[in-house]
Structures are given as C-alpha cells and as structure tokens.
Amino acid sequence: MVPIKAKDIQEASGARLLSGDPESLVSSISADSRCLHEGDLFIPLKGLNFNAHEFIDQAMADGAVGFLTEQNSGDVKTWLRGTNLVFLVGDTRQALNSIAHLVRRRLRAKVVGISGSTGKTSTKDILSSITNKTFNLTASAKNNNNEIGVPMTITKAKLETELLIVEMGMRGVGQIASLAAITEPDIGIITNIGQAHIGLLGSEEKIARAKAELIEALPADGYAILNADDEWLDYLRERTKAKVVTFGLSSNADYRAVEISYDDMASPSWRLVVNGSEGPIFKLPVPGRHNIINALAAIAAAKIIGVDDRAIADGLSQVELGDMRLKIVRSGLGFIIVNDAYNANPSSMAEALETVAKIKTDTNRYAVLGAMAELGEDSIAAHKEVGRKIASVGIDRLAAVGRETEDIAKSAVQSGLPEQDVKWFQSKDDVARWLLTRLVPGDVVLVKGSRVAGLESVVEELSKERE
User: Which domain holds residue 31?
Assistant: First the structure.
C-alpha cells in the first residue's frame, strides 16, 4: 500500500485517534484476521452474520500495528497503550472505502475498471497478462469485485504501481457508482449486458443502467470500451462523456477479429483489425469464441495505454484464466473434463456449450449442468432455452442436476436429443458414478452450473486417479 500517516487516515475517515502517534505510517491493511501479516492495520468489518470486532484481540496478538473499531468498549481499552494505533469510526466499511480512496488519489497509475454481465474476470485476467511486462501492475485477485474486494484491491497498489486494473461487480443499482467513486477509473470496460442477476434487478434495462454507472464516472479525457455486438451499445454510448471505443466481431467495431479459426481443443486464433486496418494474427491458449471477445476488449485497453503488438501477442500466449472457468482437465482414464463450474447464466451457458461443441472428438460430448440462479421469473424460460441449445449445437448426452434443471432435460428431449441420452439427477452425489460407468477415452465432459449447484465436486470425483 502507499504509506499513509495515521493523521491522514483520521482525517479521511472522520475517525478519532484514541491511541498512537498521528505521524506514524501505515503501509498495509487487512480486513481478514486469518490473512493478517505483522504490521497490518486491522479493519474489522461487520455484516448480517458476522462481526470481525470479535477478532481484534487475535489480530493484535498476531502483530497488527493497530485497528479500527466501531466499539469504544472495555476490551478496546486494553490496547490503549500509546503505541498501538486505535481509531474509533462510525462505520468500519465506510472507513475502508475512505482509506482506499485516499490511496487512489496518491497513485500516479492509470486505472482500468471492468464490469459486465459475463466475462469481466476473464477480461481482467487477459488484460493483466498482456500488460504485466510493460507496466508495474496491480490487479484484482481472483474475482474480488465487491464492496470489500474493490477497496482492498486499491490498497494493494504501491507508489510504483503504473497500472491498476479493478474488476467491479454489482447486485443492485448504485453499487458500481459507489465503487467507481472510490476507484476513479480512467478507462472503463463493459464486456456485455446480459441476464446475470436479472432476478435481483428485474430487467436487462436495469442491468444496463447499473453497469453504465462505471462509464458515467469516467472523465471526458477517459475511454469507455464497449461491445459493438451488444444491443445496449447505443444506450451505453449515450451515458458517458468519455471517448467511446468499441470491440467485437461486427464490421462497425473499432477492434475487430476476422479470419477466426480453432484448434482441436477450441482455442482460437484470429487476425486483429483496428479501425479498418489489418493487424497481426493473435492466438489464445484458452478455449471459446467468447474469449476472443474478452481478448478484444483487453487489447483495446492495452493499445490505448501504449502496449505494443509484440507484448500483446506474448501476453496472450501466457493467459491463464481463473479456476473453474473452462479449465481443461485430462482424466487418467482418457476422457476430457471442461470445468466451468464457477458460475452460470443464460449467456455463459450458451457460450460454454458452443465451446465444447468445437472440441474435436471421435466419441461423445457430455454436458453436466446445474441450475442457473438469480433469474427470477425468467428462470423457467431460460432453463428451457438451454435444453434447446444442447440439442442444436452437437452435445450427445446430458446429465442435468437439481430440481430447476428438469426444464433443461425436458426441453432437450423435446428439441430432439434422444431420451435415452438424457438423465436427470435430483442430487449431484450420483452424477459422477453414473458418468464413470459410461465415459470412454476421448469423451468430452462439460461441467457447469451456478455456485449454488456446487458441481466442482463432480469434477473432483471424475478427476480422481483410479487403477
């Protein structure tokens, strides 16, 4: 973290400094006592089902330099010894935001914010890979994109950080606006607008409105990087004063992919076209047409900040996406598992099915699918559409898991998948056993569902070494 004096934290957060030297420097913070390092300032957060103030004693015993607290209790007084930093604040979460904003204001780095219904973590990973040899980089870890993860990401940045990449998620209108106010991005990427969280927001229009909060926060000399293939492009374009740069496969995209091809494992190659001028051929080592789109968004941002084609090509060749995101796992029994169990929504489900259909095999392609959560009144229709998609793209066999997926199974049969090739399971516990009696070398198995489905356990069972 950029070193900050205690008195500056006090001023930024509106805290009372109960103990410690106002001139002392804080150079790291922690909001998780389990991951605390000696010298951290501990920020105990509160939620509906937890209160980390309970761990202040443990944090101090583990070497914290001090802590923030909303409670001026007797327990706190045991640490008022003159050397420990003890701040009394009205709200520790708001204080964390204030500290993060203070760090952001002291950075000289370019800041890229990334949001979207799908692909934001993958786009962040790709952009990180193609920029980390050109710039001193700090980026969101994994998918730490919420009201805690974003400010914590900012505080990881140091004075020498030249590029800060921050992923921003949301579960309601106003949340990205709050994150953007802390982050103050120079460049904003919106990967797409889809149905993720539609059960919470009620419509795609509200989702678009919520995502647009990122580009509304951009300065006039900033850049809004938007999907030219998305039907919400014009709506988003009107909601920013920044310069708009587009990416996608359509002919009107500023950053476009042509001459697309795939290898046997569905990893793509394409020629880049920028503003109508042909550029180099790029290749990704991760599968899927949708990852071309994610890469184009990342390339647009990288080119804007000055990364050359050679560094982009080198970075693309080394891309590694997060766990359970179309991860290829080769079983010791000779079949291939495509682990995409991290999450699911209608768009990402369609993308995953299309990707697996591109993987070459002389045997069978299986889809092991769990429910898609947070779709509200659109849930039944969305699950039925997945069933139709399965029947149309070239998936040979379906194992649907969980009550909500009955609609997938029934729709797949109605759309032409033979009934004997469709199996519905009430529980995931029996899926792996059923698969292991049928899978043969060369088979490809997609495993995908929302987090609530927990299908990574199926991947673990299929991946076990067996004699």
Answer: 4-94
The answer on 275 and 242 residing in a single domain is yes
- Cα(278)–Cα(153) distance, rounded to whole angstroms? 36
Name the burial class of residue 433, with classes exposed (0-12), middle (13-18) and buried (19+) by CB atoms within 10 angstroms of its CB: exposed
Q: Is residue 163 within 8 Å of 109, Cβ to Cβ?
A: yes
Tell me how crowded residue 417 is: count the other CB atoms within 10 A of its CB: 22
For the segment 400-416, the average pLDDT, to the nearest whole number, is 95
Q: Which domain-ending residue is among 317, 341, 364? A: 317
Residue with tokens 């591109």: 358
- Write phi, then psi, for 237 (nearest 5 degrees): -55, -35
Same domain, residue pair 240 and 301 = yes
Q: How far apart are CA 200 and CA 206, in angstroms?
A: 10
Residue-by-residue DSSP string for 344-356: --HHHHHHHHHHH
69-116 per-position pLDDT tens digit: 997 655 666 667 667 899 999 999 999 999 999 999 999 999 999 999
Q: Measured between alpha carbons, how far is 32 from 40 in angstroms, rounded to an integer?
A: 10
158 and 137 in contact (C-beta within 8 Å)? no
How many whole angstroms separate alpha carbon 190 and alpha carbon 224? 8
Kindly state the tokens that stand for 194. Answer: 């889809």
